[in-house]
């Protein structure tokens, strides 16, 4: 996919990975709508991007991805302003094992809601131009992080939901590819939550697991993850793919097409 003059939308866009995704999209010629619940940071970033890339390349919209009214209203504003949506990234996410309902509502509910709303505007049967959706999961979506069981559950959910919807899109000729990004620990503000009892709650005594993993393998820079994100956007052969990135490599993860295809050890039922 050539990104020049394409319209992209990124949630959780005001900082961290979201900001890196916005910047790499702009560098490759796209126009970008930024969505974030943090209005002050969003407006500040919008002002910075205006100076660097010129007015008209970006717009900022304040919205809570757990609110159907907020999210739907913002999509309508984006389409009214830019005329179309070609690229959508569900990036908004939190770590909060204490408030597990909120974590599920944002990390998984927001991805489901965002994907459905994006498809309404993007799929060809509705007059859209097709395009690509990238849903941000994590290494926690490929294997468990013991100190983050709820976060792990939401990120597994993102992988499963995205793969199923990629199949739906292909079978229904939506013209929209749906892929998943699964990064290792990334140097963003979210990392500080891993050493916060307020966010980890009853699993705080296990925080040393994450610390050891990061000491042994290091952490990713956000711009490295953005490069992996760009691969999922530009490579039109990729649909339903999970791209894992860690400090040593980026690799597409081979996941079975059906549950029966998982490697397994037979068990006698007698």
Descriptive account of the structure:
Strands 3-2-1-4-5-6-7-8 form an eight-stranded mixed beta sheet, sandwiched between helices. It starts with 6 loop residues before the first strand and ends in a 17-residue tail after the last strand. The radius of gyration is 18 Å and the shape is globular. The protein is built from eight helices and eight strands, in the order E-H-E-H-E-H-E-H-E-H-E-H-H-H-E-E. The longest helix is centred in the middle third of the chain and has 24 residues, at 149-172. The chain is of the alpha/beta class and 270 residues long. The protein is 43% helix and 16% strand. The model has no long low-confidence stretch (mean pLDDT 95).
Short description:
The chain is α/β, with parallel strands linked by helices. The chain has helices at 16-27, 39-53, 68-82, 100-122, 149-172, 197-200, 207-217, 222-234, and strands at residues 7-11, 31-36, 58-62, 87-90, 131-136, 176-183, 242-245, 250-253.
Task: Give me the secondary-structure category.
Answer: alpha/beta
Order of strands, main sheet, comes to 3-2-1-4-5-6-7-8
Oligomer: single chain
Q: Roughly how many Å apart are the termini?
A: 54 Å
Low-confidence stretches: none
Number of helices: 8
* Mean pLDDT rating: 95
Radius of gyration: 18 Å
Q: How does the major sheet shape up?
A: 8 strands, mixed
State the helicity in percent bands.
Answer: 40-55%
**Overall geometric form:** globular
Total number of strands: 8
Beta-sheet strand percentage? 15-25%
H/E element string?
EHEHEHEHEHEHHHEE
């Amino acid at each position: 996919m050539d990104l020049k003059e394409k319209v992209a939308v990124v949630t959780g866009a005001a900082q961290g990975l979201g900001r890196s995704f916005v910047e790499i999209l702009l560098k490759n010629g796209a126009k970008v709508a930024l969505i974030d619940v943090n209005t002050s940071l969003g407006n500040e970033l919008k002002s910075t991007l205006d100076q660097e890339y010129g007015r008209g390349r970006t717009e900022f919209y304040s919205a809570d991805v757990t609110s159907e009214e907020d999210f739907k209203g913002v999509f309508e504003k984006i389409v009214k302003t830019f005329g179309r949506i070609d690229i959508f990234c569900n990036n908004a996410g939190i770590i909060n094992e204490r408030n597990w309902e909120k974590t599920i509502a944002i990390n998984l509910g927001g991805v489901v809601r965002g994907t459905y709303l994006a498809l309404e505007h993007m799929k060809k049967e509705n007059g859209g131009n097709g395009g690509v959706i990238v849903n941000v999961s994590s290494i926690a979506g490929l294997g468990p992080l013991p100190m983050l069981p709820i976060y792990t559950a939401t990120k597994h959910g993102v992988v499963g939901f995205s793969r199923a919807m990629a199949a739906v899109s292909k079978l229904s000729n939506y013209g929209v590819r749906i892929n998943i990004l699964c990064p290792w620990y990334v140097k963003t503000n979210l990392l500080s939550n891993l050493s916060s009892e307020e966010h980890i709650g009853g699993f705080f005594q296990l925080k040393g697991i994450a610390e050891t993993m990061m000491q042994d393998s290091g952490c990713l820079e956000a711009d490295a993850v953005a490069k992996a994100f760009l691969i999922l956007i530009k490579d039109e052969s990729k649909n339903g793919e999970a791209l894992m990135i860690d400090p040593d490599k980026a690799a597409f993860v081979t996941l079975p097409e059906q549950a029966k295809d998982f490697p397994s050890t037979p068990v006698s039922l007698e």
